[in-house]
Amino acid sequence: MDSPLLTRLFRQLFSRRACQSLRSHSKLPSRIQGTTRHGQSRSLSSTGGRRDAAGDSKRNESNWQQRTDLFPLDMSEEYQKYPMVSADQLRGRRERPRRVKMLARDFIEDSLYNPSYGYFSKQVVIFTPGEPFVFNSIEDEPEFHQLLGQRYTEFEDKLDATAPNESRQLWHTPTELFRPYYGEAIARYLITNYKLSQYPYHDLIIYEMGAGNGTLMLNILDYIRSTEPSVYHRTKFKIIEISSSLAKLQASQLLRSANSRGHASKVEIINKSIFEWNTVVPSPCFFLAMEVFDNFAHDAIRYDPLTEEPLQGTVLIDNAGEFHEFYTPHIDPVASRFLRVRHAATSGHYPLPLTQSKILRKLRARMPFMANLSDPEYIPTRLMQFFDILGKYFPSHRLLTSDFHDLPDTIKGVNAPVVQTRYQRRTVPVTTPYVHQGYFDILFPTDFNVMELMYRAITGKLTRVLSHEEFLRRWAYVEETETKNGENPLLSWYKNASVLTTV
User: Fold this and answer.
1) What is the DSSP string of 127-158?
2) Please, what's the b/e burial string for 227-258 (b: 16 or more CB within 10 A of its CB; e: otherwise)?
3) I want to staple 178 with a disulfide (CB 3.0 to 4.6 A). Which of 32, 182, 386, 407 is the partner?
């Protein structure tokens, strides 16, 4: 049922400018996909549309809906009638819900992780370039980019030969592009810190969340086995993977060759969400979360420009499957706690969408047809809950995480995401996160200035934040990824990423 509709809508979007990749110089599919504006989606600034199947429309007289256009539909009656549901309640559903309302974070969680129609459950393919690139034989970064483009084409041509798919969601990670050098850098960090603080009294226990193809796991274990046999003997690698399809892929990677099969006794793949974790792990361990925070669900918060009161976003899905955004001053306990912890941890220093002075905001509010609420702020409530899990169930953990502190082509708002998909091998963006569930990557930047302080406040641990380049200069053998003319893609390609470590 989805395919003809999506095809028609993707064609309508084909004339739009494709979203740039995470790296400004790359036009290849990357960790942020392009998004299509789905016909059933409806942003806050849309004008008109059906109220329901009967086509009855009303003008907005409600204080619950954000006023951003001249004549928006008034869905307050439906808002009162429709039941509130959560992503957890929808996990058993095989079809996308209608005639319900849900918090923004639950909508995003359901869109990305629902087992039946979620983006990571059904849509994602992670690019594997084949044999590792021999950087020392490549002339410069442009040649590397050209070679990567060729391998991308070959990879997708091979997939299309057996299963053509115009809307395949394909992206790459630094682990795959810079195999095995990136994984070996992580392994050096782990070995050094393990030997300094835990060896020989404890085993080297490594947890990885969001392991993708399992490439990082294999690169780390290969390096430890070849360089530190005594440490390898005491190594245990545990993957926590919410996606059943990716968990199966990771297991198959272990059986791919005799070399990788040798690690089978070291690896445990746990197919569950980290947010369902309920077992205390008292032993010291390292916890890897590489490019995971960006897909954690966020809550949407807007502020009254006059009182500065926060209001929490709710998404109403009507009988036709269209989306309508509401804001209420009744903040749920999770978002309310986030706002309190953030304020305490940062001493009140964090960005807000209320940038103008109160006087200017008052004058602006009196102007005709002006919005009655601020731009949205997207707060990482799921990330806070992840820190809670680490503090409660992994009290002796050391966190190593890398993610994007800045993203291009985000939608409007503070800490706003990139929302995008792929169609006919092109990246297509949209301007709202409230789009057809499962077909769009919703990718948030991480404000490390704020989240580092919140992590410290919740777990009681000390941290260090480095740029992606700084971390790799410390732990990678950078000469291995240097081109003939002295350029180094490993260091230059992820300028918009940071690395946070527990110290």
Assistant:
1) ---SSPP-GGGS-SHHHHHHHHHHHHHHHHHH
2) ebeebbebbebbbbbbbeebbebbbebbeeee
3) 182
Whether 2 shows a pLDDT value over 80: the answer reads no
Give me the half-sphere count of Cα atoms (radius 13 Å) on the Cβ side of residue 53: 5
Show the tokens assigned to 150.
């060729």
Helices (H), 119-233: 141-162, 174-177, 181-197, 215-227, 229-232
Amino acid (one-letter) located at 169: Q
Beta-carbon-side half-sphere exposure of residue 366 (alpha carbons within 13 Å): 5
- List beta partners, residue 418: 443
* Cβ–Cβ under 8 Å, residues 166 and 422: no
Query: Does residue 27 carry a pLDDT above 90?
Result: no
- Cβ burial, residue 161 (10 Å; 0-12/13-18/19+): exposed
Per residue in 118-169, pLDDT (tens digit) is: 998 887 889 999 999 999 999 999 999 999 999 999 999 999 999 999 989 9
| Cα–Cα dist 102/87, whole Å | 8
**Contact in structure between 426 and 307 (CB atoms under 8 Å):** no
Residue found by looking up tokens 């006023």 in the block: 67
Interval 293-307: pLDDT, tens: 999 999 999 999 889
- Beta strands 323-328 and 285-290: pairing type? unpaired
Q: Would the CA dihedral through 20, 22, 24, 30 be positive or negative?
A: negative
What average pLDDT does the structure give for the chain? 87
Give residue 39's pLDDT band: very low, low, confident or very high (50, 70, 90). Answer: very low
Structure tokens at 371: 């919005």
Helix, strand, coil percentages for the chain (3-state, nearest 5): 35, 20, 45
- Confidence bin at 9 (pLDDT 50/70/90): low
